[in-house]
Amino acid sequence: MWPLPDDDADFRSAVVVDASQRRWRVRSSLTDEASMRLASEHAVLSSFSPALRAKLPFHMPTIVGSVEDRGRRLFVYSHLPGGPVPIDDLMDLADAPPARPQPPSAEPVPQAAAQLGQLIAAIHSLPRAMVMDADLPAYSSEQCRRRRLSELDQAATTGRIPAALLRRWEDALEDRTLWRFSTHVIHGDLHEDNLTVEGNRITAVTGWSDVHVGDPADDFAWLIGASDPSFAAAVVAEYSRHTSAEPDPHLLRRAHLEAEFALARWLVRASHGICRSWSPTPSPCCASWRRTWRPTTGSSRPHAEPRPSSRSRPAPSMPAPPGSAPRRPPSRPPASTA
218: which residues sit within 8 A by CB, 6+ positions away? Predict the structure, then answer.
């Protein structure tokens, strides 16, 4: 048995080899919230019929059993060969060697943007009934906007977010044109750690605990952390080729906003004691954020060194719409830290 990469704050994972040399992935939760997420993933994966899985351009894990472990359920999954790669390696995926020898007549491997665009389009084309039957959340576009507003209010109370950043977020949330979109089934926790790569192909998608009907832009937010700013736009372009939905001109702007809101969520979690404090000698979690986030208007990207994973890294500044009006004073000033 050997450990696998996972969200160390919430889960533990390992690969187990049985007497027949078959491999299984074992995953357990470390918190009550994580335990609920695993139960939700079990419901989601159980709702994928063999016929539905066969239509997808990627593999998915199958839960083959579970056992009680110190008051929480431990789940056993079918093993998927391959593993995750960093997002910048993912961009150059087509140049990687194949997992196995290919005949000269084999079709060229699509670029990473094309693979991701098709993959995300397939997820967003899943039937809503699957989500409803599993009793998972379903939000309208207006509900998505209001949820962000609630998060903004909570973030403002921490007193840790610059007024200019709060003001930009508020302006984006009050721009109703930005929030006119069709909701779809979304993965809800898509990032490079939940993509299994084998050779030069993305072969599987994992981490299905946050599936719901919501804003399609959420599944693109992790791409904002790529070192090449054009990568996210290339994935969106490929996505548009594989979906029958009307083009969403504001999808990438909302993806930027969602990526930036990772900072707000982290600060709220920190203020509730998950990180003890924001101090000159903070915890490693806090220190990682302080090193990578520089809330200035002149830079389009956070400092690159050191580089945490994109799922916890705050995003570059959200691009402003053409002809946007001057920013007004924020109506949600940060709380005093005195």
Answer: 186, 188, 190, 255, 258
pLDDT (tens digit per residue) in 291-329: 334 333 333 333 333 333 444 444 555 554 444 443 333
pLDDT tens-place string over residues 31-76: 888 888 888 899 999 999 999 999 999 999 999 998 887 788 889 9
CA distances from 84 to 21, 98, 204, 303 (A): 23, 15, 10, 23
d(CA 13, CA 1): 10
Burial bucket for residue 25 (CB in 10 Å: 0-12, 13-18, 19+):
buried
Q: For residue 61, say if its preceding peptide bond is cis, omega within 30 degrees of 0.
A: no
* Prediction pTM value: 0.79
Cα separation, 118 vs 123, in Å, equals 9
User: Residues in the chain, how many?
Assistant: 338
E strands, the chain, in order: 2-3, 11-17, 23-29, 63-69, 72-78, 184-186, 195-198, 201-205, 212-214
Report the pLDDT value the prediction gives residue 317, as an integer from 0 to 100.
Answer: 52
CA angle, 185 then 217 then 274, to 5°: 95
Q: Output phi, psi for 309, to 5 deg.
A: -65, 155
Closest CA to 209 of 8, 63, 53: 63
CA distance 207 to 51: 21
Sign of CA dihedral 76, 80, 85, 87: negative
Cα separation, 213 vs 136, in Å, equals: 8
